[in-house]
Amino acid sequence: METAGELSVRLWEERSVLDKLAFKLEEQRLVLASGRHHWLEQASREVQDAVGLLDQAEQERATVSSRLACELGLWPHSNLETLASALPNPWDELMLAHRAALAELLAKVQRIASVNKELLLKSQDVVAAALGLLGSGAPQYGRDGGVCPDQVTPLRLLDMSV
Description:
The chain is mainly alpha-helical. The protein has one domain (about 1-155): Up-down Bundle (Methane Monooxygenase Hydroxylase, Chain G, domain 1), CATH 1.20.58. It contains 4 helices and 2 strands; from the N terminus they run H-H-H-H-E-E. It has helices at about 1-35, 40-70, 80-85, 90-130; strands at about 135-140, 145-155. Helix 1 packs antiparallel against helix 2 (about 40-70) and helix 3 (about 80-85) packs antiparallel against helix 4 (about 90-130). The chain starts with a helix and ends in an 8-residue tail after the last strand.
């Protein structure tokens, strides 16, 4: 069961990288929410670096997982649940625990990424609205902070009636 131990190590590493990615996404969310967009490029680069680490960890895990599957007489691309079902105790329980933790971390990453996407879209609306100030009028904002495109107040930079 040496390969099962190696797979467990790889799964711990993947979990660690997913946790780091969640942290970097959270940092990016804080930058977006604060309006300090001058840090956005660095925060985004750090997210991309974490994604690169995750890709590498996934490849390493897949290699070991495939080797273990072959040792167990399974299809080389068997999923973690299938591998766990073919392993003796305590390896089966450990692999299922890894699987549950990975699923939880992945859901966390997806939630944060979704929030970040929404914040980016709102920021894009604000920039478009600011650029609109140079054009025909000033935008109105809804309760959610988004721009109401059909409600534009005419822009007056200088009141000529005074």
